[in-house]
Amino acid sequence: MQSMNHRSNALQSILGIFLQSTHTPQKVIDTLARIGISISMDSIHAGIRSLSTESQNTLQTLGKSLLASYAYDSFNVDLKTQVPLTEKSNDSLKHLTSGLLFPLQHSIIADNLKCSEELWRQSVLNPHKDLLSIHPESIDDSTPQLSRRDRFNVRMFFLDLCEHGPEYFRQFQSKIPKLDAVEEIPLVKTSITATHTMDINNSTVSRNICAVMELLAQGGVHDPTDVNMSDNPDTSQYVILIHGDLGTGE
């Protein structure tokens, strides 16, 4: 199974990294490496370091371009010990945070995100303005009609009624009109890059802030007041898109 060419052992490399990720004992991996099914532990560690360095460079390049969107969420890991202890049965549960970076598609350039001042003027915090007023709908009062949001809600109600309601309404499903596209966005495939897992429990507002700052730092965006970061991009006039949960909004 093992090729004589050390640069052509993709199957063994994949199996070796998989065995490492599933906490396979080192003796088992060494045995499989000797019979050609896996690579050695040294090669596994070298491959993981190489992948980590490549991932970090990708994150830094994408983040500093300001054409990236960030996403993060919390997850739990139960780190069980080999010898269970009754007095510390709950200490094995770890609350961590994972993150993703993905590039902004559809020919977006940095100038499209240069709207920080405009959003601040329209923000509910300054001076208590509604964000919906950024893109107001032009409706003629002489001919009352539903807004785009209302038309969407009506269509979803009809679809749910035809799909989940009584059998009688199935006959009307094909007659539900489609909505008019306001600004149709084409469907594209987006690549994602995973960040390093953060040892942060984002259950509070302050820890959510720490998670966002750590996530931005992995993308090469640091505190603008830090004079030690010479290549730190200036984000004062730009908007950075971050996807999270309810704690992110708070």
Biggest beta-sheet profile: 4 strands, mixed
Please give the count of helices: 7
- Overall, the morphology is extended
State the low-pLDDT regions, or none.
none
- Helix content range of the residues, please? 25-40%
- The SSE order reads HHHEEHHEHEH
The order of strands across the largest sheet is: 3-2-1-4
Strand portion: 5-15%
SS-derived structural category = alpha+beta
Distance between the termini: 55 Å
Q: What's the total number of strands?
A: 4
Rounded to the nearest angstrom, the radius of gyration is 26 Å
Mean pLDDT: 82
Describe the structure.
The protein has 7 helices and 4 strands, in the order H-H-H-E-E-H-H-E-H-E-H. It starts with 9 loop residues before the first helix and ends with a helix. It has helices at residues 10-21, 26-34, 41-64, 116-122, 148-164, 205-218, 246-249, and strands spanning 68-78, 93-103, 193-194, 241-243. The longest helix has 24 residues, at 41-64. Strands 3-2-1-4 form a 4-stranded mixed β-sheet, with helices on one face. With 250 residues, the protein is of the alpha+beta class.
Which helices and strands appear, and what pairs or packs with what?
Blueprint: H1 10-21, H2 26-34, H3 41-64, E1 68-78, E2 93-103, H4 116-122, H5 148-164, E3 193-194, H6 205-218, E4 241-243, H7 246-249
Helix pairs in contact: 1-3
